[in-house]
Amino acid sequence: MQQFDAVDPDFESRVRAGFQRQQFMSTLGAHMTKVTAGEVHIEIRFNPAWTQQHEFVHGGVITSIVDSACGFAAFTLMPAGSEVLTVEYKINFLAPARGDRFVGIGLVVKPGRTLTVCSGEVLAYQNGDERLIATMQTTMMMIAR
Amino acid sequence: MQQFDAVDPDFESRVRAGFQRQQFMSTLGAHMTKVTAGEVHIEIRFNPAWTQQHEFVHGGVITSIVDSACGFAAFTLMPAGSEVLTVEYKINFLAPARGDRFVGIGLVVKPGRTLTVCSGEVLAYQNGDERLIATMQTTMMMIAR
Amino acid sequence: MQQFDAVDPDFESRVRAGFQRQQFMSTLGAHMTKVTAGEVHIEIRFNPAWTQQHEFVHGGVITSIVDSACGFAAFTLMPAGSEVLTVEYKINFLAPARGDRFVGIGLVVKPGRTLTVCSGEVLAYQNGDERLIATMQTTMMMIAR
Amino acid sequence: MQQFDAVDPDFESRVRAGFQRQQFMSTLGAHMTKVTAGEVHIEIRFNPAWTQQHEFVHGGVITSIVDSACGFAAFTLMPAGSEVLTVEYKINFLAPARGDRFVGIGLVVKPGRTLTVCSGEVLAYQNGDERLIATMQTTMMMIAR
Lengths: 145, 145, 145, 145
Description:
- Four copies of one chain form a homotetramer.
- By secondary structure, chain A is α+β, with helices and mostly antiparallel strands.
- The first copy, chain A, has a single domain (about 10-145), classed as Hotdog Thioesterase (Thiol Ester Dehydrase, Chain A, Roll), CATH 3.10.129.
- Chain A has helices at about 10-20, 25, 60-75, and strands at about 30-35, 40-45, 80-95, 100-110, 115-125, 130-145.
- The first copy, chain A, has a six-stranded antiparallel sheet with strand order 1-2-4-5-6-3, covered by helices on one side.
- In chain A, β1 (about 30-35) and β2 (about 40-45) form a beta hairpin.
- The longest helix of chain A has 18 residues, at about 60-75.
- The first copy, chain A, is globular, with a radius of gyration of 15 Å.
- Chains in contact: A-B, A-C, A-D, B-C, B-D, C-D.
- Chains A and B meet through α2, α3 and β3 of A and α2, α3 and β3 of B.
- β3 (about 80-95) of chain A pairs antiparallel with β3 (about 80-95) of chain B, so a sheet runs across the interface.
């Protein structure tokens, strides 16, 4: 794991404020459980409202939490007054999204002036067992306001 | 656009039944507005509950409808008694998800015995204007029950 | 297919000059067989030197021609004096790269000030038959010199 | 890093034999410098014949070594008598491919009966400095002969 220095000392409050403004995250009941320079975790609990036809959580919901985690991980390293947007991502689903609780982890791989590349993982927890269920590679973009 | 022949003459009712069982699609208020051999459309209306920090629809929601559209497009060409799952996808966001209504379009590019490759698009409609806001490339897998 | 207007009337000579400077393309014996605003074709002939263990052309060579085709397709729409670089791509291999001749086709999907999204295809030709063997989705970036 | 057990005790000789049959790897002067269960390294030296217009190594060549490294990493965990093929990959280019020597590293993330997901990295070496220049996420498929 790489170590990064945030240029904005107040990055955590800036990132948490951005997360609060994502209504979809609050609709999902998501919590931001970790915010450090270059790493963000976002967590949801199982809810039948988010499921697909096999009663696992829909891949789009799993994608949503790790997309937000990666976006905010990139955002931790951006200057105050900037905005972040998702250019693109690719996700592989490794196992069914079965569990009580799901954690999307976003990690910066390479920060850049305009583009930041992140990798993401989603872990599922069931009865105390942890399982890697998805892995993401994504490109985020800084927008100067 | 390629033409495909479905091996299952009842593919439409099978696909629509699968869609009905995706609780997340009903949570989103999604409708399946087209089902033909190799092509499926899924539509949602704007709802502030699905938005991100800039008040556009969250990328994960946009991804969800086109993921489902691609999965069901692949499923139209699979035999009765099979199941479909998403192996992976990659999506590029081309414009902000601003609009009254969003249509995810899934198209089969190459059906296969085990794997089917699809391409997806998401169109946003606002005051009658249509705009391409996302494009997806994805691999779906057939599971024989 | 979308129509695009090139801002640089001399885009074709600029693009062809860039292609001439890609030594790897000349190592592969590649030809640029089409250059229009938003679309570029690059063609190679079969050569056992480019094969993998099953005697088909290596996926990395197939990727190389369609990566260059997409990059130059994006470059047709960029202003004189700019440079293009590949941010990222995703490619699906649909069929073995078996044939006498392979054509990588790059098409602009969405041009942008900084980022341009393209889609690519690779066609294989054998005894007059044409087959789609790969499909790409990619993000290109303009660098102002 | 995960630890994997290879089902085939002779995986190394099987993997090295597969690599020997990839004529494109020998055209590139590539060497397989590491083969363990779930991890393979493939190395090339700089050669102007592989360059693009800015005199860096072409992205397609960088992709080729890490594609092969990932494919053979997946292959280390497959049974004797099987074959491996690349379903798809996504690669981000993080820095120009400038250097004397380039190492493609393939790592298994999740092995499966049919599909294996790998992650790849490419390191560039110049005057003793090491730099991460590309990161890949890929799906490989086992073919039973």
